[in-house]
Every structure is written in C-alpha cells, then in structure tokens.
Design goal:
mainly alpha
Length: about 90
C-alpha cells in the first residue's frame, strides 16, 4: 500500500512537472519531448488503475502516433540558424 502511494506521488509529480514544462519551455523540440514524458506518465497512471488496455492505447496512439507527427512537423518546419543562412547567401 505504501509503495503504491509513493509510486502514484512520484508519477503525479512527473506528470505535473512535464505538463508545466510543455507550456513554459520556449524551444519547440523540448516541448514535444516533455509532452512525450507527460503522455507516458499518464499511461503509468492507467496501469496503476489496472486499465492495461487504456495504457497500451495511450502509448500506441498518443505517444506512438501523435508525438511522432509532432516530431516530424517540428523537424520539417524548423528555421535555419543564422550560420546556415549566412552559408546559403555566400554559396549563391
């Protein structure tokens, strides 16, 4: 009983901290990674509630699907840094 309470408290803190990090972090890439941590910790909460199917769907659909799409969108829409822009101008 004590271990379950400690585990719940730990993952509750992880969920809250990573959710706040998603909102407060300025870098989009780090925000997407923190979103993955938040979604995985929610899956742990489902396992603790003995809802293994919901935990598996959380991991497969949200972490495996949505987060990968967000990652691809971040990678494809990322702006070039000033060094890369300077190299492109000098190459022309």
């Amino acid at each position: 009983m004590v271990y379950e309470l400690l585990t719940f408290g730990l993952f509750a803190l992880v969920t809250i901290a990573s959710s706040l990090g998603v909102v407060l972090v300025r870098d989009v890439w780090h925000s997407a990674l923190l979103l993955g941590v938040a979604l995985l910790s929610v899956a742990v909460h489902y396992v603790m509630l003995q809802a293994e199917f919901l935990a598996a769907m959380q991991v497969l659909v949200y972490v495996g699907g949505v987060l990968i799409l967000i990652t691809f969108a971040v990678m494809l829409t990322r702006q070039a840094t000033t060094d890369e822009q300077n190299e492109e101008v000098t190459d022309v």
